[in-house]
């Protein structure tokens, strides 16, 4: 399941990152470059979430679970980049610098907690998945990571929904795109809630079947990534259509 979901996301990520980078070069501003950086980092993250790639990374580095760490670090960094993107689009310019500092500081604090905990817990006979949450350190690591995902996705769902309402009826492609992005963030919250609640109920000795969690969580995560790729690409498609119409109008005159 993981190979299919995250392999598809990697292919989509390469294409979308190329499109976003091209747009950022032609229209340089905080939001366009933040989107390009976010998608580039996300593509690296989902690539390392593919089991075959994760196994190859472990063999090359001789570090157990290195693929999982890279995927989690990328998830934190791309969430922070998307927050900066939406702040640039949704709020006043004078708020941007402080907002960038706040989101960047929160991401660095999260990594400062997660990475040492990972290194202290990591060994060849464990995996940082729900199948190994009988180890309290792995459970703590995952809950810290999932808490960050839940909070950041909540903010992104709110900001994307707010931006979608502002564009609805005025810029239909942008309105639809940010609506899809809000749905993607909601799916990200569902992923964090699903996996996190399994860990909590496991700790309380009353979990649901692990097989169900191992199917539902990757599906929610993969759909969230694909919805976000589609959502933040649609405004670019709308802008391209507008430019083409303008060129045709000028040529007709």
Q: What is the compact description of this entry?
A:
With 253 residues, the protein is mainly alpha-helical. The protein has helices spanning 2-26, 30-49, 51-61, 66-90, 96-121, 136-167, 172-203, 210-252. It is 85% helix and 0% strand.
Q: Can you characterise this structure?
A:
The protein is mostly helical. The chain is built from eight helices and no strands. It has helices at 2-26, 30-49, 51-61, 66-90, 96-121, 136-167, 172-203, 210-252. The chain starts with a helix and ends with a helix. The mean pLDDT is 85.
Percent of residues in helices comes to: over 70%
Number of strands: 0
- Overall pLDDT metric: 85
The radius of gyration over CA amounts to 19 Å
Termini separation: 55 Å
Topology order in helix (H) and strand (E) letters: HHHHHHHH
Low-pLDDT regions: none
Tally the helices: what do you get? 8
- Multimerization state: single chain
Strand content: under 5%
Largest sheet, if any? none
- Give the overall silhouette: elongated
Broad structural category: mainly alpha
């Amino acid at each position: 399941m993981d190979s299919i979901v995250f392999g598809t996301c990697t292919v989509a990520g390469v294409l979308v990152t190329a499109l976003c980078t091209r747009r950022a070069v032609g229209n340089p501003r905080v939001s366009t470059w933040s989107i390009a950086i976010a998608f580039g980092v996300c593509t690296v993250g989902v690539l390392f979430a593919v089991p075959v790639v994760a196994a190859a990374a472990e063999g090359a580095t001789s570090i157990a679970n290195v693929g999982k760490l890279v995927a989690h670090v990328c998830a934190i960094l791309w969430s922070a980049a998307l927050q900066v993107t939406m702040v640039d689009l949704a709020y006043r310019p004078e708020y941007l610098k402080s907002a960038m500092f706040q989101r960047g500081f929160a991401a660095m604090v999260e990594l400062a907690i997660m990475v040492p905990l990972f290194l202290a817990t990591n060994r060849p006979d464990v995996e940082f998945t729900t199948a190994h949450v009988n180890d309290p350190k792995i459970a703590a690591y995952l809950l810290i990571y999932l808490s960050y995902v839940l909070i950041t996705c909540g903010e992104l769902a709110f900001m994307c929904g707010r931006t979608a309402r502002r564009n609805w009826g005025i810029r239909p492609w942008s309105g639809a795109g940010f609506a899809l992005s809000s749905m993607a963030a909601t799916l990200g919250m569902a992923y964090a809630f699903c996996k996190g609640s399994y860990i909590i109920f496991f700790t309380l000795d009353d979990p649901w079947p692990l097989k169900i969690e191992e199917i539902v969580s990757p599906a929610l995560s993969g759909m969230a990534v694909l919805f976000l790729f589609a959502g933040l690409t649609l405004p670019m498609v709308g802008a391209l259509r507008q430019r083409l119409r303008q060129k045709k109008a000028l040529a007709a005159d």
